[in-house]
Structures are given as C-alpha cells and as structure tokens.
Amino acid sequence: DVPKVPDCRGDSNGPRRGSLCDWHCAAINNVQGDLGDLGCHLHRPRVPPAVPTPSCCQQHSEEVCESCVGKTTLTAENAVEANKLSNNYKFGFKKWKSHVTARPWEDRSEIVKELYSDLNVIRGSGGSTLTCGNGLYLLLFGWWLSLLYVLVAAVMFVTIIGAPYGRLCWALAGYFLWPFGKVIQKVEVPKSQQVCEAGTGESSALLGGPTPRRWRPHCWAGTGYWHRAGTAAWLCLGYPVLALAHGLVCVTAWLLVVLIPVAKLSARATSRVLLLPPERVLVRRLRMTEVPLEGEVILCCYRAANPYYYKYAVDGINVFAVNLLPLVLVTLVLGYVDSSNHLTGSAVKFTLALLSIMPLSYYIGMAIASISAQSNFAVGAVVNATFGSITELTFYITALIKGSREGNRCYAEVVKSALTGTLVGCVLFVPGLCMVIGGIRHQEQRFNSRSAGVSSALLFLSVGGVFAPTLFSKVYGKLVCGECHNVTQNPLGHYLCHNCHFDLMDNNGTLYYSHVQPLVYTVSILLPAAYLIGLFFTLKTHTHIYDIHISDCHMPGHHHSAVVHWSRWRALVILLLSTLCMSACADLATEHISPILTNSTISQYFISVTVLAMVPELPEIVNGIQFALQNNLSLSIEIGNCIAVQVCMLQIPILVLFTIFYPTNFTLVFSDLHVYASMFSVVLMNYIFMDGKCDYFQGTVLVMVYFILLAVYFFAPSPSGC
To answer: Are strands 483-486 and 548-551 parallel, antiparallel or unpaired?
Structure first.
C-alpha cells in the first residue's frame, strides 16, 4: 500500500527551479539536521533555471553536487509523517512501519479501499460467488443463522399481529443462508399510501415509517394499533434473539480477521435492516449485469473472506492488536482474582501473561512513534531511551525482585539467559528472517553498509564490555567442583568432576568485591557513555552517513496539515497505561514461571533464550519483515542491531544500577555458553554485512546458525541453582 512517487513539479507556469546542487547547499546550511523542510528534490534530470540566480553552489565543486544523486529520497504526506520516516533512520529511535497519521483516501490502493468500504456498493460484474471463503461462511454461520430466521418467522406468524415481520424473517432466511450476489434495499413508500396514512395520522414513532396498506384491510384511524402491536411483538420476541445471534457472528468473524466482511454484514443487519419497517425492506438477487437504481442499498456482499484484512486498522491500531487487547484484561482479572489457582493452573496464567505482552509492546511502540513524530529531536530521543526497553526491563526487574525475596538464584540465571537470547536473536534471527522473506520477492537487496557499520562497531564494543567481567573471572577465579570421581582407581589417574564453576568468593570474596565488582561498575558507566556518544555521532555531527532526505512533494489530495491518529497527550496516556499493564503482566509471568522451570523436562536455558527473550520482540520482527518486503533492508537490519545495542548498553547497566539500590543475586558474570554464543553471533553478523548487499541464501545461513544455537541450549543442562 505504497503510493506512487509523484512528479516533482512547481507551479503551472513552468518547472520548479533549482537543482540537486542547490538542495545540497541547503542541507549544508541546515545545521540542526531538520529534514522536513529541505524542499522538493526527487531524482530526475536537472532543468537549468531560465534566469541565472546566485547560488551557494558556486562555493562548492561539481563533484560534491553530483554526490547527491546517490542519496535516498523519501516522500511523505505531511510533516508529521516525514518526521516519523526520518526517525526510522536515526540511531536509537524505534523503527515503526505503520502510519501515525491518517492517509488521504484518494491515495490508497483499491485493495485497501475495499477493506474500509461499507457493504452497500453494487458492482456491475461481481464475478463468481462460489469461493472457499463463501463456503466457509456457509459452514460456520449460514446454515444455523438461516434456520434461526425460519424459527423466528414461525413465531411471528403465530402471533398474527407480527405476520409482516414473519414475512421479513422468511425473506432474510434465504438471504443469510447465502447472501452473496444478493442485495437488501430500503424501499420508498408510494405517494398513494402516504396520502391514506396522512388521513389516519398514525405512524411508527420508533421505526419512523408509515404503516403499509397491504397489511391492513382498510385505511382507517384504528389501523395504527396493528402497527404498534406488531412492532412490540417483534421487539419482544424476534429482534432480541436475532440481535444476539448476529452479535455472536460479528464477534467470531472479527476475531478471525479474514472474515471481517461477515462481521460488517451482521452489524449492519442488526443496526439497520432489523430496525426498519418490514414493508420498506426488499431482498432481491442481482443478475450479472444488473445495477438497481431505485431505493437505498443497505447490504450488498460478494465475498465473505478477504486475506488482505491483516492490513485493517482501527484508529491507526492494527486489527490483531485490537483483538488481543481483551486478552490483557482477561489475564489481569484471572491472575489477580484467582490467586490460589482454583480456576486455572500456573502454566495457563504464565502463557496468558506472556501473550499479553505482545499487544502491549505494540501499543508502547505506537505511542513512542507518535510522540517522537510530533515532538522535537530532544523529546524524541528522551522518550525512546526511556521507554524503548521498558518491555524487557519490567520483566527482568520483577524476576530479580522475586528471586531476591525467595532467595532463589534461578531467577538471576533466567534473566541472564533472556538477555543473551535477546542479543543472539536480534543479531541472527531477526535480520536473517527478514533477508529470507525479503529475498523471496527481491533477488538481491542492498543496504547502507556505512550506517550498519556504526551499529556493528557499537555492538562489538558493547559485547566486549558486557562480557569483560566474565572473562576476568575466568582468568583470575578459582575453579571449584561439586564432586569428583576417580575413573582409573589410581590416585594419580584421571578424575571425572561435576558442577564445576569459577568461585569468585574465595578468601571471603576478596576477588569479587575488590576486583570484579569495581570492573562491573566501571563497565556499567562506560557503556551508556558510549551509547550517548553514538547518538551524538549519528544524529548530530555525521547525519550524512544515513543519506536520508524527506521530500515535500505531495500527491494530489495531500495536505500539509496532518490528521494524527494519536495526539501527544493521548499517546502519553496510552504509553503510561500500557507500561502499567506491562508491569502487571510481567509480575504475573514471574509469579507463575517457577512451577514451569521446576517441573519442565526442557532446559531452563532453552525456555529463557526462546520464549522469554523473543516473545516481547514479535512486534519488532513484524516491522522488520514489512520493511524487507518493501526492499528496505537497512531498517530491518537496524531493528535487530538497535535492540542488541540497547540490551548491552542500556538494559544491563540499568539492571546493575538497580542491584545497587535493591540487592539481588544478579551479577554480571555469564556462563561460557552465553559468552561463546554471543561473540560468535556478532562476528558472523559483521561478516555477512560487510559488502552492503545480501540475498535469501545469506539470510538462511543466519537463521540456520540461530537454530543450531537453540539446539545447543535445548540439550544443555540447566544452570546451577535451578
């Protein structure tokens, strides 16, 4: 759903004057790096100005001006959307695919227009109605909904006064059995009946329609009673049952997403068709070339299913995030009301809490993108740095608090494994999966190797800093084993030892408190400082390495004024509420994870590096895949790199800082498996991204290596203390 790039033209008197060279000078003078006001500079042959005008380009060589040709130009509908697009390419900002403003209706594709259109449009040739989706409707809803209409029609005929509604239900029974290729119209009342009804002065105040002459023997004042009595019988006996059935159909079809047309059909039938006077409803079948011209069309449906409804959004929120929002409420109510596990067990509550994190991560991401797009650079940087990792930090901190209260070291090991799983997954799995899916559509994809190199350098630095205390402990720590057995029965022979680890508390913890702990604090200060330097380098002094420029060329119908989905205050409220719900779900997850870790036959390493690490990142993975499908692999790679950098440079130092004020069992000393897996992943990722281009084969290599590491974690024994 990407609009075509428009021709960059000026007024009607001639082409827009100026050149890429003029634009380059404007970019040089733009010290603040505001990309939203740089003018129209789409890539096209330059048109020399009719009258030579002095330009700052006279101070620069032609070689500098020609370098502008290789830069990437993006087209935005408005200034807010332009800020969001430029923020996607900035280091440290959350990459967001969805629009934060309402797109003009005329610029949308025909597929998307069909998703949002009401079911009241008649097409001259609708094609065959025998489709798999229509057959699925018949199996799931059509047969029993039609049978219910028949039963309600029988009841209304028995009441006699409700016979007109019985005829309507009989007609609608055939319609809802197979509504495709049929139309429901609102028929106007003939003038002759209006004159007769005007003499009686009776009408339906509820439904707003006059009583038809064919349902009464004579046109006299007392016939208004029949209309009122029949309507009362309908509202008491028929309408509630059918409204309940249509409500069930509407909710079920909406949750299935692809059947949203059925949900619209049921909602419109309940709110419009069933509340009209029966004489004003006409059900008819359309011929292939027939287009009815008389009467208002209320319902006309050709397809029950549409696979493109995954793009459907409600007030800017994707339909899947909308459908998962009730799951959050169920999780919170079930988790805190049924604290003694009478209704469900710990496994169900843990699963629900983990699934609830996905929509909350989406709302947090949408709120951050909305605030950043409507604010200046400083506010956007603060919001992204503060709430960018809030999803993971809430879970890690609640797990460490629970482990400290129970005196269980297993929770600290779970947090370390989740940190490593996030690092390895974002370095290998996220870019690898995006390269595979994007490579299916595009034979070869290219990306900005220089901007990727900045993230790679920071990633090397962060991984080295995070694992420096671990390597220090391996060198100077004392190897202690739990038990050893002599294999050869010879005192000088070989010994088989189990549960070996490096003891840092030898001599009353002198090594740890005098050497390792100061090193941990030093690293925790240097890593955020390096992150700030990276922000200043990429966003202030060397913004040109991203080569991203926003054009103000607008397509017909575009307006400079943006209609945002969420205002800044609304986005802030949603951000705070989502963070609060995220903390509650993280608390429930840590509360019910202990039985799973204790009773599960799977290694705790595997559970932590897969489920706990990657489930909160699912919205980011979806964004990366969407960018890759649009041949924008640079953002797909940056998504994984930025998350990995934030894990090492922000999340881990925050956890170390937290342990200073709230002592826990968390120490920045990882197992050998975590160290080797992380370092190997970073080296492999940098090797793949050296040449600035990739294909699906290289993505397959990254994904396969990730699965190999998962197999290693699956067969690895559980960490000590669990």
So the answer is: unpaired
Nearest to 642 by CA among 363, 359, 368, 313: 368
Q: Are strands 72-75 and 548-551 parallel, antiparallel or unpaired?
A: parallel
DSSP string, 552-569: ----TT--SS--BSS-HH
Q: Are 703 and 433 in contact (CB under 8 A)?
A: yes
> DSSP states of 446-510 as a string?
E--HHHHHHHHHHHHHHHHHHTHHHHHHHHHSEEE-SEEEESSS-TTS-EEEES-EEES-HHHHH
Taking residues 190-205, what's their average pLDDT? 45
697 neighbors 432 (Cβ within 8 angstroms):
no
Among the residues of 567-651, which ranges form H helices? 568-591, 594-599, 604-607, 613-614, 618-629, 633-646
Mean pLDDT of all residues belonging to the chain: 76
Q: Which residues of 80-102 are buried (b: 16+ CB within 10 A; e: fewer)?
A: bbbbbbbbbbbbbbbbbbbbbbb
Indicate if the pLDDT at residue 257 is higher than 60. yes
Query: Exposed/middle/buried for 514, CB within 10 Å: 0-12, 13-18, 19+?
Result: exposed
At 651, which amino acid appears? Q
Q: What letter would DSSP give residue 178?
A: S
Round the CA-based radius of gyration of the chain to a whole number and report it.
33
pLDDT band at 603 (very low <50, low <70, confident <90, very high): confident
Q: Is the predicted pLDDT of residue 501 greater than 70, yes or no?
A: no
| H-assigned helices in 272-345 | 319-337
Rounded CA-CA distance 403/391 in Å is 19
How far lies 196's CA from each of 16, 81, 219, 479, in Å? 68, 59, 6, 104
Q: What angle do CA 683, 656, 714 make, to 5 degrees?
A: 50
Handedness of CA 565, 570, 574, 576 (dihedral sign): positive
| Residues 49-71: tens digit of each pLDDT | 444 444 433 333 333 333 333 45
Q: Which structure tokens are listed for 495?
A: 């010994």
- Cβ neighbours around 15 below 10 Å, total: 14
Beta strands 317-318 and 313-314 are antiparallel
For the chain, domain boundaries = 114-187+229-307, 316-486+496-546+565-715
Burial tier of 172 (Cβ tally within 10 Å: 0-12, 13-18, 19+): buried
- Name the band, by pLDDT with cuts 50, 70 and 90, for residue 384: confident
Residue 18 in 3-state DSSP? coil
The total of other beta-carbon atoms located within 10 Å of residue 333's CB is 10
DSSP SS3 for 84: helix
> In terms of DSSP bridges, do strands 693-694 and 445-446 run parallel, antiparallel, or are they unpaired?
antiparallel
CATH number given to 316-486+496-546+565-715: 1.20.1420.30
